[in-house]
């Protein structure tokens, strides 16, 4: 392999220009490591490894070694300019033993035990290779349906989802993270109600779920009538439901838990480029890639924030550079298809047969800020349509040129392009708007087409040091305009945005809007703008504050259908177990006032105690906390998880034993609960009117209620706030402890690059 410095067109290596967070993410997740976990390649080495490996596909089309080398140089320059990056599996695995370069897959599940458990096996293989999986459970017969072969009855789709959920839990994905799944069920399946409700008790932690809505169902909603439920086993009518009542249930559950999302399945099949090969029935885990069974997605993103030019009339998007990056990116992704080592041969056959790629964007919010355009404005919507229309047109032109060189995709005959007026293209699809969580950290830009999540936020590092992170565009502007100060940045981090902060000029406030400043309608309008010119679908999260109403969610779902998007995911702050990026601060005060030295023996446990048990919902499931007293006061705590086993159960038991020993040793209960309250874990939950940040926090809540019960004879059933701005507190990254940003059904850490999803 050539040395990176020999082929790069830049005066310095990429290693010297990456941001500290970029370097950290690359070192933790992407760079090749030795047996001891030490990185043995630099970022430049990684990009060169990927460039040479992907460019080797050119040999298949008659390229000479010199031509392959030239393509490798071009791909290297394309990535190290940070103007384009392929999806994470390509960066991680290209040129390595695994060589699995796809982000996500859809697997079929037929109505038989053999098919179900074959899919479980295939899922494990895919997760092991670093991919995520989507499924439709719509072919499975409903609960209670007769199974002739065994003379038994079916347990239904939701029960089998549990099998996939547990299998996912057991497989460590590519040595980096747990696998992510998308579960889809058609709205006309007889088990649709249980599916809609399946995540309300905190189950299915490894699934995003979406309901596949048909146009017939939406018509029934609009007309206020019943619709038919169809048994998929025999295609007979199994009953009827009131369409509006079911729609309201979907909205209610989305408001309460963040799930289910909705996909408009008929629209996806309307745009299915290869209808003779089958129907689209599911998407990947983030909702943006509708796929046939056994299809894979190969994705990449253009970094719009790197494509701004400054002329006499001010900043503008450099359209010529954008066209160039799109053409080079399409060639890159087409080559990925050929060098990819697919986890299943059937997936490889279909991927090479349809040659679907998904070129999207990141840095959209940054671009708008650099151009002085507010995200929630008509100008931004118009520019979104213009930019994506341009990318789609140039992308198809690039695919046409590749078809002239290499031929059309093998399944071209019978496709939507196989008409006298149709284009001869190399790729059945060209564009997708994907989430770009860790990629955008590497590229040091905003994620996908999402608005900024925060202008300034607090990051906790080793030894509980608290660092204030500031958006670099805002920091530069604040310094230039003379209103920068560390105190102001801290105030913005606590507040969560610049909205209403007097020291920030109004025109700056208008441009630096964040996800929660924006009326949710603008999220959907932006998604619709990009969807109009996207072959596949658009990954986008519609963010709501915790005080959003069910009516607000319904309004967004209605608008999504009206604007022609293919699916929508909403997130109401505090409604989901994996919470979003933290923008507030937590006060961890309290402690034992008098420090004692020497040996302290806890008094023996009494034979008889009195107490109470409280059930508290946590991100790990229901936690039952029993607190008992004797004549000397509180003396013991027991905890029991609603589900058996696991680290959560064992750690909670250990915690309760230590609390019990401390209580019988004379430690003030108030001192104990103050230390428990506010502890965060990766899976907080919203319960009893407040946020439960962890199992330890739940025990502290139960102790608060118990003390109140002893003093007054009655106890609150709500979760009180702890510290400042608790409503904004979020899930902690399980690897570095920083806060998580919620994006398109995934949770991403902007500090270390951890991602819940593939």
Notes on the protein architecture:
This protein has 758 residues and is α+β, with helices and mostly antiparallel strands. The protein has four domains: 4-100 and 298-442, Anaerobic Ribonucleotide-triphosphate Reductase Large Chain (Alpha-Beta Barrel); 104-283, Anaerobic Ribonucleotide-triphosphate Reductase Large Chain; 456-585 and 738-749, no CATH class; 610-723, no CATH class. It is built from 24 helices and 30 strands. The strands form eleven sheets. It has an eight-stranded mixed beta sheet with strand order 15-2-3-8-9-12-23-22. Strand 29 and strand 30 (746-749) form a beta hairpin. The protein is globular and about 90 Å long. The model is unreliable at 1-12, 577-598 and 722-730 (pLDDT under 50).
Quick synopsis:
The protein has 758 residues and is an alpha+beta fold.
List key phrases describing it.
alpha+beta; 758 residues; three-stranded mixed beta sheet; Anaerobic Ribonucleotide-triphosphate Reductase Large Chain; globular; eight-stranded mixed beta sheet; single chain; 30 strands
CATH topology of the largest domain: Anaerobic Ribonucleotide-triphosphate Reductase Large Chain
Largest sheet: 8 strands, mixed
CATH class of the largest domain: Alpha Beta
* Beta strands, count: 30
Q: Helix content range of the residues, please? A: 25-40%
- Percent strand: 15-25%
Overall domain count? 4
Morphology call: globular
SS class: alpha+beta
CATH architect. name of the largest domain: Alpha-Beta Barrel
Instruction: Give the termini distance in whole angstroms.
Output: 29 Å
Report mean pLDDT, rounded to a whole number.
Answer: 87
Strand arrangement, largest sheet? Answer: 15-2-3-8-9-12-23-22
Low-confidence stretches: 1-12, 577-598, 722-730
Radius of gyration: 27 Å
Annotation field: number of helices: 24
């Amino acid at each position: 392999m050539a040395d990176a410095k020999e082929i790069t067109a830049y005066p310095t290596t990429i290693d010297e220009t990456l941001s500290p967070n970029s370097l950290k993410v690359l070192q933790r997740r992407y760079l090749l490591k030795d047996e001891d976990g030490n990185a043995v390649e630099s970022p430049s080495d990684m990009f060169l490894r990927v460039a040479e490996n992907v460019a080797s596909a050119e040999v298949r089309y008659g390229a000479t070694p010199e031509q392959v080398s030239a393509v490798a140089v071009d791909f290297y320059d394309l990535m190290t300019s940070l103007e384009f990056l392929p999806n994470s599996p390509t960066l991680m695995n290209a040129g390595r033993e695994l060589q699995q370069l796809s982000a996500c897959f859809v697997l079929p599940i037929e109505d038989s035990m053999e098919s179900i458990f074959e899919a479980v096996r295939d899922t494990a293989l895919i997760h092991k290779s670093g991919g995520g999986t989507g499924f439709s459970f719509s072919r499975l017969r409903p609960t209670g349906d007769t199974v002739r072969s065994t003379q038994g009855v079916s347990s239904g789709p939701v029960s089998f989802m549990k099998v996939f959920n547990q299998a996912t839990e057991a497989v460590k994905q590519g040595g980096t993270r747990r696998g992510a799944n998308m579960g889809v069920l058609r709205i006309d399946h007889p088990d649709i109600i249980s599916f809609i409700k399946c995540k309300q008790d905190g189950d299915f932690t490894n699934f995003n779920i979406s309901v596949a809505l048909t146009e017939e169902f939406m018509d029934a909603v609009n007309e206020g009538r019943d619709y038919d439920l169809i048994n998929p086993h025999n295609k007979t009518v199994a009953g009827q439901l009131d369409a509006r009542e079911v729609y309201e249930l979907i909205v209610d559950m989305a408001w309460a838990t963040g799930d289910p999302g909705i996909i408009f399945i008929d629209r996806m099949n309307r745009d299915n480029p290869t209808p003779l090969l089958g129907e689209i029935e599911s998407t990947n885990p983030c909702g943006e890639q509708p796929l046939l069974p056994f299809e894979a997605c190969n994705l990449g993103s253009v970094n719009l924030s790197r494509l701004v030019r400054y002329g006499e009339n001010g900043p503008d998007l450099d359209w010529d550079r954008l066209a160039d990056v799109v053409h080079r990116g399409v060639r890159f992704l087409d080559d990925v298809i050929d060098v990819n080592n697919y986890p299943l041969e059937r997936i490889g056959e279909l991927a090479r047969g349809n040659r679907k790629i998904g070129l999207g964007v990141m840095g959209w919010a940054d671009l708008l800020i650099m151009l002085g355009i507010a995200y929630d404005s008509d100008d931004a919507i118009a520019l979104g349509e213009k930019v994506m229309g341009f990318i789609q047109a140039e992308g198809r032109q690039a695919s046409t040129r590749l078809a002239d060189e290499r031929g059309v995709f093998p399944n071209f005959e019978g496709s939507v392009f196989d008409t006298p007026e149709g284009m001869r293209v190399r790729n059945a699809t060209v564009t997708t708007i994907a989430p770009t969580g860790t990629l955008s950290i590497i590229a040091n830009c905003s994620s996908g087409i999402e608005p900024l999540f925060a202008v300034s936020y607090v990051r906790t590092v080793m030894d509980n040091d608290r660092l204030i992170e500031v958006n670099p565009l805002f920091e530069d502007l604040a310094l230039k305009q003379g209103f920068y100060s560390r105190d102001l940045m801290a105030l913005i981090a606590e507040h969560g945005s610049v909205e209403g902060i007097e020291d920030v000029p109004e025109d700056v406030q208008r441009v630096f809007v964040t996800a929660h400043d924006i009326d949710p309608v603008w999220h959907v309008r932006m998604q619709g703008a990009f969807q109009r010119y996207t072959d596949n679908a658009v990954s986008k999260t519609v963010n709501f504050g915790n005080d959003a109403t069910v009516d607000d969610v319904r309004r967004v779902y209605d608008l999504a259908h009206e604007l022609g998007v293919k699916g929508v995911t909403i997130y109401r702050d505090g409604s989901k177990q994996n919470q979003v990026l933290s923008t507030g601060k937590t006060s961890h005060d309290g402690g034992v006032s008098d420090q004692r030295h020497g040996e302290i023996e806890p008094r023996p446990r009494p034979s008889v105690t009195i107490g109470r048990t409280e059930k508290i919902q946590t991100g790990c499931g229901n936690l039952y906390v029993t607190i008992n007293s004797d004549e000397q006061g509180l003396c013991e705590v027991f905890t029991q998880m609603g589900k058996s086993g696991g680290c959560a159960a064992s750690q909670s038991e250990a915690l309760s034993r230590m609390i019990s020993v401390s209580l019988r040793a004379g430690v003030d209960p108030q001192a104990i609960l103050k230390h428990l309250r506010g502890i965060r874990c990766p899976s907080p939950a919203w319960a009893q009117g407040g946020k439960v940040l962890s199992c330890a926090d739940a025990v502290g809540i139960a102790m608060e209620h118990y003390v109140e019960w002893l003093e007054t004879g009655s106890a609150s059933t709500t979760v009180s706030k702890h510290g400042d701005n608790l409503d904004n507190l979020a899930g902690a990254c399980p690897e570095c402890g920083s806060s998580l940003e919620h994006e398109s059904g995934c949770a991403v850490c902007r500090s270390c690059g951890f991602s819940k999803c593939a």
